[in-house]
# Entry
Amino acid sequence: MAESRAERKARRALIEAAEGSGEKKSSKKSKASQDAKGKSTKGKAKARRSGSRREENKAPQSRSKRPHIDSVPSARKAVDPKSPCSIMKACGGCTALNRPYKKQLAAKQAAMEELFAELCEREGIAVDPIRGMGVTLGDPGKYSAPRGFRHKAATPFAPGKEGTVRCGFFERGTHKIVAVPECPVEAPGARQILNGIAREAERLHIPAFNEDKHLGLLRYAVVRCGWRTDQIMVTLVTAQHDLPHAQEFFEAVAALDPHIATVAQNINGRPGNAILGEETRIVYGAECMRDQLLGCEFDISPTAFYQTNPQQTELLYQLAIDGMDLQQGDILMDAYCGSGTIGLCAAKEAQDRSVGIMLLGVERNPAGIADARRNAELNGLTRSAWFMADDATDYILDAADNNERVDVLSIDPPRAGSTPEFLEAACALKPRRITYISCNPVTQERDLHQLLDGGYRLLKITPVDMFPHTDHTETVAILERR
# Structure
């Protein structure tokens, strides 16, 4: 999909800020060395414009007609031996891994300030300093480089020579597989499990899926690791139900790590780059894994949405909860609620303050709603929380037509943002406060204009660095009825 003008503007600001924050070059350098540096800078900017492994449920979209390969030797040779990742140039996921973390945050801050400049001028506010991992931009001292923060890891599989099964990451911009011995930004042990699955498939002669010929069985694997717990969930994505030596394979996968609580099989026989199909069954262990956020317990099913970086998720959610300013008797609507994490954390905190509220969660994914209801029970909130499997736009339109009362509205839409119909209905409901969490500030900026035109004022907007070493930034906006 082509970038919009706002997207290009934000991305250009990020690149320019990053490059501008580098050390000043010595005047003694020759013109030839400066030219070489210029070419290198262009190459780096091009790398930052390429996609990274940020989608929850999709593999890279670009395709290559050439066969899959295990690695890219030329890219490996070009990497500094002191680099924290041996395949960073081939992978392309962490385009800023070698850049000091303070400079990464400064670049993201500059991009957000440029993106939201018009809104901030209109409202007479400034973008808050970006909240990084363990640090806020402006704090003194050296900023430690984040490691091991991605608690969800995935791999595609592809057939190799003589029945071997290849796994790893797709090389940047292609569907060539780059072998990954370990990944410095993933939770410890996650990549070893994924590589172990490939070995077990080879041993049991379970063929990897060939996406060009649409033949084979094993397509993807997804590993999710608990943050506050030690539980692990593995989801195996196959092209069909039946596998040779299926039970032995499932048990072998479960034995790869003693903390694996759940192994699920997801069936996806459709062409395309979507990782997950519509049918999932548990083949080993419990139906869900369990984790904790902000003092609440959450059961997570194999296909339900749950944030990849839980440490920053707690920060993101706390910013939103603080902005809700929940009061006795409030009705909180949590739109796009997933497995209920934001709303339940807010309701639990209100309960701990002896503030009684009613929580209404809306999510179109039935698996997410099933998890949300279970999570409400886990946290003793069944009497004050109600969840509905419905499209958020359809539901809020009906609520507006029926003049239903909503005091606080929490929005956490997908990357495409909300819809004009949803935002219009939200303004018609006239909630006292709106909190808008966004994984795509460009679409959030677009949506905020409609909310301001609909009778709201923007109190604050805070960037959060959910994925260090990439150009990705998430934001929390707090709005109040004028």
User: Anything to note?
Assistant: The chain has a mean pLDDT of 86. The first strand starts at residue 152 and ends at 159. The chain has 14 helices and 17 strands. The CA atoms of residues 38 and 275 lie 38 Å apart.
